[in-house]
Amino acid sequence: MRNTAKITTAVLAAGALTFGLTACGSDSDSASSDTSGPLVVAASPTPHAEILNYVKDNLAKKAGLDLEVKEFTDYVTPNTATEDGSVTANYFQNQPYLDDFNKKNGTHIVPVVTVHLEPLGLYSNKVKSADALKSGATVAVPNDSVNEARALKLLDANGIITLKDGVGNEATPSDITKNPKNLKFKELEAAQTPRSLDDVDAAVINGNYAIEADLSPAEDALVLESATDNPYGNFLAVKDGNEDDPRVQKLAKLLTSAEVKKFIEDTYDGSVIPSF
User: Fold this and answer.
1) Per-residue pLDDT for 14 more than 50?
2) Nearest-10 Cα torsion for 43, 44, 49, 52
3) Which end of the chain has the least Cβ crowding within 10 Å, N or C?
4) Who's near 15: CB < 8 A, 6+ residues apart?
């Protein structure tokens, strides 16, 4: 039986509040030097925790790694928990998101090794193609700045809207210069976008949340991000100063092993793509 700790929404909120009260005293030099005990890693349930639990169940013991996985269902608490030392590492995010998070929250999280890509996709319960979206249709998009920009860039890349030239990872609907279908955008927490599919005409959904909702990005998405030169690979991350923790280095090596690559390819059938 896996010793995965599932964190409830109430606990997540409490953890975020606790961090908010203590973050002012946080400093990048305070990264823990204690490398005894298990390596505790915060992760989104799918696919991150699943990949970590594969490592835990099949590879960690032989490598001399005591691994503990804690599951979080939001995109905030894994970083705040890593910053305050509640966990040593996390595995759930990409570089643009981390850069934005560190800037806005004064945190000191750094990447260790990139493991996989989850292509972002546009999904619908009401139409079978993006071209079939009607004028005035409502499209749900994630409400955090990086994933909203990523969603809008996906629609731009597929000719559904046009964004102004040079728009970056802070793009919002106000940056749309052409909107032929007069689409309306509903901003939701990323985890809520799959649940909105019956209430909106389409939704742009992060790969991990799509898989949790029994959607197959490779088969069900109306349009899907290309994996070529994609900057949104998900990585193992730690607080600055913990990169050389021997436990972290062991996990980094295992996460980029041939065994994990095969596990990702066999389990997710193109919906999650190894990045190593």
Assistant:
1) no
2) -40
3) N
4) 7, 77, 80, 81, 86
